[in-house]
Every structure is written in structure tokens, then in C-alpha cells.
Design goal:
By secondary structure, the chain is mainly beta. The protein folds into two domains: 51 residues, no CATH class; 111 residues, no CATH class. Helices cover 11% and strands 37% of the residues. The strands form two sheets. Strands 3, 6, 7, 8 and 9 form a five-stranded antiparallel sheet that branches. Strands 2-1-4-5 form a four-stranded antiparallel sheet, with no helix packed on it. A hairpin with a 2-residue loop joins strand 1 and strand 2. The longest helix is centred in the first third of the chain and has 19 residues. The two termini are 21 Å apart. Bound molecules: zinc ion. The site of zinc ion has 8 residues, from loops.
Length: 176
């Protein structure tokens, strides 16, 4: 059964709440347009509430030549200018910044920073470098279950990281 709030399909029919986000799995009798509209509104409010307060960044590395060799000189956090609830599911939000690319096909680890209510998590994400000609852009995409993936490349060719769930798993059935 697909959750109206987070889009996850992990819930089984016997469950009363989505295991990913905790939104009630509402069974209705009869179908009325009004009921659907009300449920849709509830789900949207729940989605905004659950996703509010998250902000995202990306660690970037500066390199400089030292004694003829390229060395990493500093690390900086770049803010991704989007709020979690503004992301639409399955659609990549691209940010403006452009980065030097790494040869296509190679593995690269990007570090996503997730902030929420004063907490900060750094999550290293292995990504396969996309086959692109130009500079890289980075992007963020929301997946079902309130998870995000980091994208790198450009709008024509990009690679995505694995999913990072934003919320801790919902409490098991019966717990509240
Ligand atoms: Zn859900």
C-alpha cells in the first residue's frame, strides 16, 4: 500500500502506519472526491512537518600545488539552497555551483551534510563518476520514504548516490 505522505510502498495491508514515516494508512469506505481531497491535504501537511527544518550541504575540497604536486589544502561546506519540503519526488534539484569533473567511470566519494535542529551529520556517499564533458553540478533528489540521493553530473548525464533516509525508522506497530 502506497503511503500518501512519503510515497513509500513498504507498508503491508495489515499495518496501520507507514513503516517509513509513520503516516496513518487510512482505509476508507466508499470514494468521494471530498474525502480524497481532505486526505491529500492531511498528507501534504504531514509531509511538510516531517521535512521541515532539514538543510543540506556538500563538502568541497580545494587543491593547490605544493612542490610540484597537487595537494588538498582545505575543506569547505557549500550549502545546497533548497529546503527538504521543496524537493519534489523523483525530480533532481540542481544547484548552481560547478565543480571540476573526475574521469568518467571512476569511483568518487562525496560527503553530504544534513542539518536538522542543531544536529549535523556528515554522510560519505560513494558515486560512480558520470561520463560528462563539462563541469559537474551537484543536485539532490527526494525518494519515496523521505530519503534523499545526491546527484552529480549535469542534466544530460548524471550519477546518483545510494539513498539516505532523513527520518529514523518509524516505531513498530503498536508503539507510540
Ligand atoms: Zn510514509
Amino acid at each position: 500500500m502506497k503511503c500518501l505522505a512519503c510515497g513509500s510502498s513498504e507498508a503491508e495491508a495489515a499495518m496501520s502506519r507507514c513503516p517509513r514515516c509513520g503516516f496513518p494508512l487510512i482505509h476508507t469506505v466508499g470514494e468521494t472526491g471530498d474525502g480524497e481531497a481532505a486526505l491529500g491535504k492531511m498528507a501534504e501537511e504531514y509531509r511538510r512537518k516531517k521535512l521541515s527544518g532539514f538543510s543540506f550541504g556538500l563538502l568541497t575540497y580545494r587543491h593547490e600545488m605544493r612542490e610540484g604536486r597537487l595537494e588538498q589544502s582545505s575543506v569547505q561546506e557549500v550549502t545546497l539552497p533548497v529546503r527538504a519540503f521543496e524537493l519534489s519526488q523523483g525530480k533532481i534539484f540542481w544547484q548552481e555551483g560547478r565543480f571540476a569533473r573526475i574521469r568518467g567511470g571512476e569511483g568518487v566519494t562525496l560527503t553530504l551534510v544534513i542539518r536538522k535542529d542543531g544536529t549535523r551529520r556528515e554522510i560519505p556517499l560513494p558515486v560512480r563518476a558520470p561520463e560528462t564533458e563539462g563541469f559537474w553540478q551537484t543536485g539532490l533528489v527526494l525518494e519515496p520514504g523521505f530519503a534523499v540521493r545526491l546527484a552529480v553530473g549535469d542534466e544530460t548525464s548524471c550519477s546518483c548516490s545510494g539513498e539516505v533516509p532523513l527520518l529514523p525508522p518509524a516505531r513498530p506497530e503498536g508503539g507510540e
